[in-house]
Amino acid sequence: MTDTIITGIDVGSSKVATIIAKLSEDEETPRIMGFSSVPSRGVKRGTIVDINKVTETVEKSVEKAERMAGVKISSAFVTVGGPHIESLNSQGVVAVSHPEVEIGSEDIDRVVDAARAISLSSTREVIEVLPREFIVDGQGGINNPVGMSGVRLEVNTHIITASVTNLKNLERCLSDLGIDTEDFVFSSLSSVYSAVSDTERELGVAVIDLGGGKIDICVYVEGSLSYSTSIPIGARHITNDIAVGLRISLESAEKIKLMLSKIDTKELSARDEIDISKLALEEGLKKISYKTVVDGIIRPRLEEMFEEVLAKLETESMITQIPSGLVITGGGALTVGAIECAKRVIGLPARIGTPSHVTGLVDEVLFPQYTAVVGLLLYGKNFKPSQSGAGFKDFDKIFRNFSMKSSMRKMTDLVKSLIP
Ligand SMILES: Nc1ncnc2c1ncn2[C@@H]1O[C@H](COP(=O)(O)OP(=O)(O)OP(=O)(O)O)[C@@H](O)[C@H]1O
Ligand SMILES: [Mg+2]
């Protein structure tokens, strides 16, 4: 196999990140060759509000990454997120075509199609169909029913849908730059591929992508994706609150917020005043009170955010099904006190999710805000079989590699390879 180039683009509310990586036969992990992150313009809460500005920013980001990698890209995997994302669990049932022999790949194809056939308005599009379990003659919990005998085959799937307008706008920005969109991936699902362990997924975990403009959430229960949603508040609201509270500009507030996340809190508790003269703020502010900013401004906003996350998890009865707790990704995960606040409000273990499973130029990339874009590379790496046309005919071969413990990623690829 010759080396393949794979690209991930994350068009966020705060930044546009592009990663170009090489996949080769002798290396398991994608090798990053080019990376860039530029401030985003024209995106609000994950939704494009100014297509020209977005195209310009994506162009800048792609060109930078291309220069670094020394290659020109023609296609990319792209994240999507924001409140236009919705999810549902859907069932499909079919009669097995040849019950006298065994369940075949065509039965899987039909049953997944049956589950996928939900009535959707013309403004929405399915972006993910993930089988959660197959049921053969009433016996559930089956990952791979091919080769089993039975007459009735059912599947439970998790389906994620997105606004057609938003997908079309993103696709248009990229096609204007000569880039084909290979696939869209929900941003917190993409983060699962790069930052969540198999054990966490098997036990049950919620992945919270705390971005600049929104919080994307996906929940795994017993190894299967069971719930996806998004909340329209993000870490930018914390910056706004600091700006209003201290009567300073957004730029100054952002500088203070970033500085606070780097301070050693143990050192702080002794003295309340923090010297910020190094930031050289335009307002001339030299000192701030830790209590006022962290306890009085940042913490209440974080609490509000995690209370909203808790409400979503409780409404869907997910809270008791995720003993692995929360993996928090996105730049907002770095906010001072964010993890402690999540643990306290939601009452579950929480950790910051940073990307892994990549090599090469990783120094700039291994931060929570790049978990989703790195996840695209890992998703794309396994997506390859369907690109190379390994569809229906190669189904048995693909399925033979399935074990009961196989990752959901393989399952996604498989289903995607079956869906026209
Ligand atoms: N070190 C840090 N400390 C505190 N906050 C940070 C830090 N680094 C980044 N952030 C915050 O994270 C936010 C950006 O996160 P991220 O890059 O994940 O957002 P995005 O993907 O562009 O947006 P979205 O996913 O909402 O569309 C900004 O509000 C920024 O202030
Ligand atoms: Mg993001």
Summarize the structure in words.
It is a single chain. The chain has 420 residues and is an alpha/beta fold. The chain has a domain at 197-352: ATPase, nucleotide binding domain (Nucleotidyltransferase, domain 5). The protein is built from 13 helices and 19 strands. The chain has helices spanning 51-69, 105-116, 164-176, 187-195, 198-203, 236-246, 250-260, 265-268, 290-315, 338-346, 371-387, 395-400, 408-418, and strands at 4-11, 15-23, 31-39, 43-44, 47-48, 75-80, 86-95, 124-136, 139-142, 152-163, 180-186, 205-210, 215-221, 224-231, 273-275, 287-289, 326-329, 350-352, 359-360. A hairpin with a 3-residue loop joins strand 1 and strand 2. The radius of gyration is 22 Å and the shape is globular. Residues 384-413 have low confidence and may be disordered. The protein binds adenosine-5'-triphosphate and magnesium ion (MG). Residues 12-15, 40, 46, 81, 211-214, 234-236, 239, 254, 257-258, 261, 330-332, 334-335, 369 line the site of adenosine-5'-triphosphate.
Write the layout of secondary structure elements.
Elements: E1 4-11, E2 15-23, E3 31-39, E4 43-44, E5 47-48, H1 51-69, E6 75-80, E7 86-95, H2 105-116, E8 124-136, E9 139-142, E10 152-163, H3 164-176, E11 180-186, H4 187-195, H5 198-203, E12 205-210, E13 215-221, E14 224-231, H6 236-246, H7 250-260, H8 265-268, E15 273-275, E16 287-289, H9 290-315, E17 326-329, H10 338-346, E18 350-352, E19 359-360, H11 371-387, H12 395-400, H13 408-418
Parallel strand pairs: 1-6, 3-19, 6-11, 12-17, 17-18
Antiparallel strand pairs: 1-2, 2-3, 4-5, 7-10, 8-9, 8-10, 12-13, 13-14, 15-16
The structure holds adenosine-5'-triphosphate and magnesium ion.
